[in-house]
């Protein structure tokens, strides 16, 4: 830029809303040379414009060009030309045309000046005086562009420093800010705070100015003393990748170049110390105010670090890896698996030497963007950090948080299975470290049929499968842990054989013990002949394999009871009612383990109900009894629900048949024979006549005695009949339809009343228990029609109606004949009363007909007239009372308690049977509407269907009968057990196995045992073109160098549902796998134990620990979360808690590493690089140590100079007589607040805390009444927390500033008089004021 006057150019004025308001009041004195030249206003305006332009021109030509460090401003050259030469009538006219000084036109959108040779708007340098005049007259738009003057070292000329250096400020923290995968790949703006803050400062400023700028503008700690901060200039190849926060480890070991700015150069300019580049990175370090010695963090770290950790020879002689892992809350499953994995030597070296960083795969869609591998590597380095020898444990919180982000199973703090976690972790590490970035498609090879028995073809197939696997999966996990299974499937029909090979990382071995499921069922025999030895209700304990399903249970019961499975029905009973119908969920049950279907607490009844599905229906039956206390009116069920089988073509129409079958079935609930008791009652009845079948003649009240009377009954339309379509009067046995099943001596309601509920259909109710938790959106299975319509809830008994109500009236009377006389007498009385009322009404009616007009017609058996009588009307005569059976009167329609009495003990209260003859004439009613009018041909009508498949029956028992038959004679409690010798034999065998040890070799043998696939796990045979129950055999073809064996102690998929607590004897050294590997070419199959993952506990949870052999010192240790203890005898690890076993393949050379040649070479090269890195780290440590020591020496030197300066000044004052020697408690105190007396170093420390906390910052001087010991001046010290501050003396800081800046070295003398008053001689400039003045000189 030239300092010449800019050429005059014309520029049209512009205005902007952002312009600063113009002011006509200038702080500068403008020469008034035209006061007396012109008197008119026009001349005055022109003179004002000319004077202002002349003033600026004079300042441009004659003003001081400034010295280095002075601030100058840059403005548009065009704007300055227009100010000087743009035509205008007055200054106001020029203001309107020019507008404000536009600073935005000379900088880009980021506020940065354009390069000098590529400026869209040419700039001109002006002095602060010129800029202030222009800004005062015209205002400004945008931030003024201020730059300092600097001398060009090459030319010696003064130039404006257009581009001062930019300083990127990093802060020292405990841990760096981690950039997530999202921010690394998407540069999300919300994470901008992780980038370092950038500030700018002229090279002419001092390091003190730079430190002060950082303290105030970046750290926002203006009140903290400046000596609480120090800065490091850092430089590294990847410095741009670092975030705003760096750790001490980053500073010492990761940053290539670092230089600590010591206090000796704080007063030097940046230029003088070689600050010439455009950008620098600075790390600011703040004193730890909470530390006991008030040190910088780097000093503390260097004092605590063990230097021997950088000596490889000494490090190798030391043992590490003894740190436990803190339990974060149910994370013992993670801690135990990690300890086992961390102590695998090859895994340890691979991560410790940072070899994993070379193979991180960030692009794998199946991976975790390298986060799992990084988290595991960081955890391993912490666990094996030699400097942590004083600690007992570390907290894996960062690792737990990382795995939780990528696996929902391990995101919370629920107990998990350690084997599942290990399997997931190995897979996650494999995907993060997979060396294959683009996986090719590989078609799975198969053997030809003629090659099935060719060993060489099988070996070749295995090699092909392994190579294909390595083409897609190649990592350190594959090198160490992966082996191959050989799976062989054999078709049972065509003998088609299929051989495949599949990889595995851990070998799951079943324990060779009978894994049985036991449950006790209640067997209810409802057959006619009986299949159980003893009573019809017995207990049976069942033994099945854990993998059995519902079909297996039915088969077991069928074989044991020797009955068909279709006749067995299983229900869960709860409170004498059905609760679960296992047949209802058959389509689901047949796919599920039996332990998931029937739980231990379930009370399951197995009903044996023989039936013909073509002709029979099965009806559920409940038994109830009313509470003897009538005031409650409570009816409860008793016993167990039963079933009755009825022929749907005949039995469902016969009330008598239904009752008889119910009586037969209910008999199983009592030790008494109810049929026998029933017969006793009949035989004890007076005048009882026993017949096989009763006819109409035995019911005299219902049928008249006449030789010509014929009882005709029309069968239902769907019955098959013979002849003319009518049944004979009686068959050869004397059976006449339902009438023969009625008993004239005992009512059909005797003992219990049959009630029914028709039309019931199953609908799951709100309390229906869902055992299986199937998804709501799962496809619905088609359920076949139910054989038995069982209610899965307790029915409402008031909804049941008597079954006899469905009978025709006459047929109902036959079944309730013993109580019919009550009904008959009542009807006859009603009839007589009705006739009498008619006669009275007839006699009183004058217009009525004569008596001759009335006649009564009696019909004979043939339907003709028997007699006709004229004259007075006479009611028909009632039958003599002695010809009608005498009944006890009762308000009840049926027999009540008072009628029955002790029915099974005595028949004294039973109704008297009717005589066989002598009553026919008396039973001839004169009214055809009489209910006793039974024609010679009694038509009962079509039979109603009493029972359907949706009917539920209920036997409502009279309490006296219930009490006598069931209370003392019930059979549904204390049920006898049905012997099961086979089960007892197997149980004794299993118990002997549990008490004895089994060998790991036994587990290996049982692993390869062939098994037949289940009905629901069929294999599709390509030759048969159908699914078959093939025979499956799995063998170990090859094993990894690290063999992880999973002892399958937990049976089902639900963890801890059942645990086998058995000791498995496994070898500590020399596990020989050669006999259990199918590959005939396998070599070196000897393994040694290195770790055991233990599980203690059982159902629902437990606790995990680890027993591990440290490969560095060769000793065994027991890791119980954060607690670590030594194991003296390795045999102690063989316990019943052993869950995961880690074996290491034995090598011929102890110095060789496993995993193959490539991994071996990688670890060896990493070993050498690690040694070199230790040397580099030691050099970095020494460099930082030297710089810190140099800084400390400067600090100590300053302190000594300050002490000497204070002592000399004290002597001068005493010699000049300004102050007297301290006497009688008087002290001389300087501005820093430290008394001259050596015994009173900091009087502020003696001030009460409450006084220090409440004192205002602006009022830190002592009041006149303060004592001498509290009169020191002090300042507040602010920590990083804005609300946390301490009241601290800042005397050392002020003394340092005096020594560093001589021109500001004005000591303030405070003389304490005996009256307590203070006299101040001078006052230094405050630090904040100094920074404010600095802000006027440069742009930040």
Automatic annotation (TrEMBL):
Keyword Protease recorded: yes
Enzyme class, UniProt record, top EC level: hydrolase
Start and end residues of each stretch annotated as Disordered: 1-43, 865-942, 1209-1290, 1314-1340
Gene Ontology molecular functions: cysteine-type deubiquitinase activity
InterPro entries: DUSP-like_sf, Papain-like_cys_pep_sf, Pept_C19_DUSP, Peptidase_C19_UCH, Ub_carboxyl-term_hydrolase, USP, USP_CS
EC number: 3.4.19.12
GO biological process, one term: protein deubiquitination
Source species, domain of life: Eukaryota
Compositionally biased region (Low complexity): 1-27
Provenance organism: Scheffersomyces stipitis (strain ATCC 58785 / CBS 6054 / NBRC 10063 / NRRL Y-11545) (Yeast)
Keyword Iron in annotation: no
Catalytic activity field: Thiol-dependent hydrolysis of ester, thioester, amide, peptide and isopeptide bonds formed by the C-terminal Gly of ubiquitin (a 76-residue protein attached to proteins as an intracellular targeting signal)
Name of protein: ubiquitinyl hydrolase 1
Domain called USP: residue spans: 323-1146
Family to which this protein belongs: Belongs to the peptidase C19 family.
UniProt keywords, alphabetically: Hydrolase, Protease, Thiol protease, Ubl conjugation pathway
Biased composition (Polar residues): 924-936, 1256-1272
Residue span, DUSP domain: 47-150
Extent of Acidic residues compositional bias: 1223-1234, 1280-1290, 1329-1340
